[in-house]
Amino acid sequence: MLGPSSRFPATLSLVGCLLGLLFASYSTMDYAEHLDRGLHDVHCSFIPGAPPTSEAEACRAAMYSPYSALFRETMWGGVPISLFALGAFAFLGGFALYLWLARERAPRIALGFFAGVGITPLLVSLVMLTISVTKLGHLCKTCVGIYISSFVLAIGAVSGLFTLKGPGRPALSFLFVIAWLMALGLTTLVPAAVYAASVPDERPYLNKCGALKQPKMSAGAPVKIHGSRAIQPVMFFEDPLCPTCRAFHERLLDEGVFERLDVDLLLFPLDSECNWMLESPIHPGACIVSKAVICGGDRTRQVLEWAYDEQVYLTRAGKAGANVLRAAIKQRWGDDLLRCVDDRKTDVILNQHLHFASDNSIPVSTPQMYLGTKRVCDEDTDMGLRFALKELAPEVLK
Predict the structure, then answer these.
(1) At 41, phi and psi to the nearest 5?
(2) Long-range contacts (CB closer than 8 Å, 24 or more residues apart) made by 168-177
(3) Residue 78 region, left (φ>0) first, then alpha (ψ -120 to 50), else beta?
(4) What angle do CA 316, 378, 228 make, to 5 degrees?
(5) Which residues contact 52 (CB under 8 A, 6 or more apart)?
(6) Domain topology for 8-198
(7) How many other CB atoms are found less than 10 A from the CB of residue 103?
(8) Measured on CA atoms in the order 304, 305, 308, 309, is the torsion positive or negative?
(9) CB atoms closer than 10 angstroms to residue 109
(10) What does the domain layout of the chain look like in residue ranges?
(11) Which of 189, 193, 199, 380 is the most buried if burial means most Cβ atoms within 10 Å?
């Protein structure tokens, strides 16, 4: 049983807050580092103190997702929600330390207040966990660290109610609750306000990533994908086995942007089997899957999204050999599409796409996005996507 002088609830709460501060700090630092428009390693581990790594696809995808920050249209990258967690954990950690020191001298109203506000990080974590599972399809380890910290804090805060028995606790006016709530709100908002005031102006960089020298193909034609409410012409260079392309496509869908795009899709497989610009394959099998997308016809978008949805399996199949990959395509799309994949005419079309990329000196990387003839910078297709679209093509956000 927890007695009135027990320090266990405050200790557990303090541990949860310190862990929450640590994981929220990692998330915020990773976000802030990318304000230089560069690509950096990110923290992605359940272990406090683990160094950042480049092998952090789930955490990077979470950071680039539309759910990781607020006010993305008004400032590049927006304000990361981890900043609000940072402020909240700081206040709650300070309050837990006060309860730890005060023990039985802590007033009843303080324990009740702490139990009430101590569960709020857990409620927010449950919302973010649901989004991660249902929208992103994976869990960021740093985010999970915050979820666990919130759970530990909530258990400690609520268990403090079991120490209320016994006389002798001082009484305080309800006005203290109002003051504490104001302090919590201020502590939560100040880090975000400071961050927002220091975000650099990225607008001068938006048009400095090059342009197409030859905007129209001299031979052949791109694959067309029309969004259901298409109003903005756009050109994509994509590899269906490229994880970054898949993440970019998912961001466009999550932002509600893709349906407003009239897409000219150029297949740019990073596979030396068909791409002479590479000495060795980066994504083995990407040539075959690219031809399947070309052969999609009225089902082009479905084939492309199937390739993204099944990318892990198709990548393994591509490494296992062409026959394994062809069997997977046949099983899903039938003999007719597979015959098109093997048709010499399809090879010619894919080669025309690659020649168009070569004629325009396209960097050998994917995805790439062009609005008109202007190339959208790589960093403006991830963290800065919504800000860049607001500046360059605001109609797609309406």
Answers:
(1) -65, 155
(2) 168/4, 168/104, 169/4, 169/104, 169/105, 169/106, 169/107, 169/108, 170/105, 170/107, 171/107, 171/108, 171/109, 172/107, 172/109, 172/110, 174/109, 176/109, 176/110, 176/113, 177/109, 177/113
(3) left
(4) 80
(5) 30, 40, 41, 42, 43, 44
(6) de novo design (two linked rop proteins) (1.20.1440)
(7) 14
(8) negative
(9) 17
(10) 8-198, 223-397
(11) 380
Q: Are 154 and 118 in contact (CB under 8 A)?
A: yes
- The C-alpha atoms of residue 92 and residue 108 are separated, in whole angstroms, by 17
Phi then psi for residue 164, to 5 deg, are -75, -15
Judged by phi (left if over 0) then psi (alpha if -120 to 50, else beta), residue 285 lies in left
In CATH terms, is domain 223-397 a member of 3.40.30.10?
Answer: yes
CB 66 within 8 A of CB 251: yes
Q: Which amino acid is at 91?
A: F
The phi and psi torsions of 35 (rounded to 5 degrees) equal -70, -15
**Residue in the structure block whose two tokens are 């104001």:** 182
Q: Buried (b) or exposed (e) across 197-224, using 16+ Cβ within 10 A?
A: eebeebeebbeebbebeeeebeeeebbe
Phi–psi pair at 161, nearest 5 degrees = -65, -25
Distance CA 257, CA 289 (A): 25
| Cβ atoms of 279 and 290 closer than 8 Å | no
pTM for the structure as a whole:
0.86
Tens place of pLDDT per residue across the chain (398 aa): 577 778 899 999 999 999 999 999 999 999 999 998 888 899 998 888 888 888 888 898 899 988 999 999 999 999 999 999 999 999 999 999 999 999 888 888 999 999 999 999 999 999 999 999 988 888 899 999 999 999 999 999 999 988 887 666 777 778 889 999 999 999 999 999 999 999 999 999 998 999 999 889 988 899 999 999 999 999 999 999 999 999 999 999 988 999 999 999 999 999 999 999 999 999 999 999 999 999 999 999 999 999 999 999 999 999 999 999 999 999 999 999 999 999 999 999 999 999 999 999 998 999 999 998 999 999 999 999 999 999 999 999 97
> In what order do the strands lie in the sheet containing 368-371?
223-226, 261-267, 232-238, 368-371, 374-376
Which amino acid, residue 134? T
- Mapped onto helix, strand or coil, the DSSP state of residue 375 is strand
Half-sphere exposure of residue 104, counting CA atoms within 13 Å on the CB side? 9
Pairing of β 79-80 and β 69-70: antiparallel
